[in-house]
Amino acid sequence: MYKAKAYSVTSATAPFASNTIMRRETTERDVQIEILFCGICHSDLHTVRDEWHSVMPTAYPCVPGHEIVGKVTKVGAAVSRFKPGDLVGVGCLVDSDHTCPNCKTDLEQFCRGAIFTYNSPDKHGTAPVTYGGYSESIVVDEHFVLRVPANLDLAGVAPLLCAGITTYSPIRRWGDIKGKKVGIVGLGGLGHMGVKFARAFGAHVVVFTTSLKKKEDALRLGAHEVILSTDPAQMKQHAGTFNFILDTIAAEHDINAYITMLGLEGNITLVGAPETPLQVSAFALLFGRKSISGSLIGGIKETQEMLDFCGERNITSDVEVIPIQKINEAYERLVKSDVKYRFSIDMASLKTQ
Ligand code: NAP
Ligand code: ZN
Fold first, then answer.
1. Distance in angstroms (rounded) separating the CA atoms of residues 258 and 255
2. Three-class SS state of 345
3. Residues with Cβ within 8 Å of residue 240, at least 6 apart in sequence
4. Ligand 1 atom with the shortest distance to the CA of 42
């Protein structure tokens, strides 16, 4: 084992502070990575503050971070796909059982033995739970390491590892959205990537936002129209007209307002994970044979496909790059939906700690 610098919290109410964690030595199949950038996902905040206690309680100390980009520093003897110096990414998954039907069909995120990048039992016994990317280095099974296209800005690539795949996957799964009316609810980290992908796949993209001041940005990011969701007149005008809506809201909200926006057999897919259950009106679904679904990140194969697509189309996340010392401030802004549109931590700042 070796020591690595990191930032962690010791309770749901404590601020982040610098500390040192242990990382395992590379086993045969492992890749050791020097982390260059790590995005800040709202899931990090939910976890740090133990907002998902009823589903997955947080073990402290907690080192979040699952939007990792870095450089390979060392590989195990059996690693065939990576060598020192390669640019790589790690998302929300670092291991699974490799054998179940979901793993065998490239849906590792649904493996019952899936190990998430942080706050999952650490089967190597390095620590009680896995520690994520707010750290100078990480060691990951090669199957869960992604290749990063060389032409992209690394700070903007990091968020693709979660916000990117989480929006890419349900949009692809829905089918051919070319010419369809697609709504993206919430212009945050996930939402702004949803806009970019929906536009790239040829949809007529409409953003629902509570923040009028984000309108110009939404249009610049690729939206054709923007609806202020707090304005009943604007909402009414679009009722019954959408084919597909992706809901990225991180907090409690009235989902029925968006179900009403769907046309016949329209679908709303939830990717946002509010801490409290949402109330769904049966009638809103019945009239129009509408459906509601959920989606969780994406498998490793699909994540690589998404990264390659981003390389070809020059798609990255719009980021505010911060030193890790600004992390507590960044969390306060994230709660207020005041991020343009993802924080990406420059891990070089950890070296000066
Ligand atoms: P984020 O950057 O904070 O964006 C969420 C956006 O939702 C905000 O920018 C805001 O957009 C809107 N919003 C926030 N509170 C709202 C409220 N009370 N009412 C209406 N709209 C509100 O968060 P994120 O990182 O994109 O994550 C979004 C959610 O997805 C989180 O719950 C996160 O845990 C979850 N997530 C799920 C997966 C998955 O696999 N399913 C993966 C990653 C994250 P406007 O200002 O435009 O209104
Ligand atoms: Zn995430």
1. 5
2. strand
3. 260, 261, 262, 263, 288
4. 25
Q: Residues 334, 40: contact at Cβ < 8 Å?
A: yes
Does 260 contact ligand 1 (Cβ within 6 A)?
no
The DSSP code for 129 is B
Tokens of 124: 């190597």
Nearest Cα to Cα of residue 165 among 130, 134, 127, 196: 196
d(CA 43, CA 53): 12
- Tens-place pLDDT, residues 140-154: 999 999 999 999 999
348 Cβ below 6 A of ligand 1:
no
Ligand 1 lined by 271 (C-beta under 6 Å): yes
pTM here is 0.98
Cβ of 218 less than 6 Å from ligand 1: no
In angstroms, what CA-CA distances link 235 with 183, 215, 227, 261? 12, 15, 7, 8
Ligand 1 pocket check: which of 40, 42, 56 to mutate, most ligand atoms within 8 Å of Cβ?
A: 42
Pairing label, strands 115-116, 93-95? antiparallel
The half-sphere exposure of 348 on its side-chain side, counting CA atoms within 13 A, is 5
User: Of all helices (H) and strands (E), which one includes residue 39?
Assistant: strand 30-40
The segments of the chain whose pLDDT lies below 70 read none
Ligand 1 atom nearest to 273, measured from its CA? 32
The pLDDT tens digits of the residues spanning 78-95 come to 999 999 999 999 999 999
Q: Which of 210, 226, 230, 270 to mutate to test ligand 1, by most ligand atoms within 8 A of the CB atom?
A: 210
Other Cβ atoms within 10 Å of 278 Cβ, number: 15
Q: Please give the distance of CA 289 from its chain centroid, rounded to a whole number.
A: 30
The residue whose C-alpha atom lies closest to atom 13 belonging to ligand 1 is 249
Q: Mark the residues whose beta carbon lies below 5 A from ion ligand 2.
A: 41, 43, 162
**Cβ neighbours of residue 143 under 8 Å, at least 6 residues apart?**
29, 98, 300
Q: Is 117 in the pocket of ligand 1 (CB under 6 A)?
A: no
Handedness of CA 45, 51, 52, 57 (dihedral sign): positive
With H, G, I as helix, E, B as strand and everything else as coil, classify residue 162: coil
Whether 249 is in the pocket of ligand 1, judged by its Cβ within 6 Å, is yes
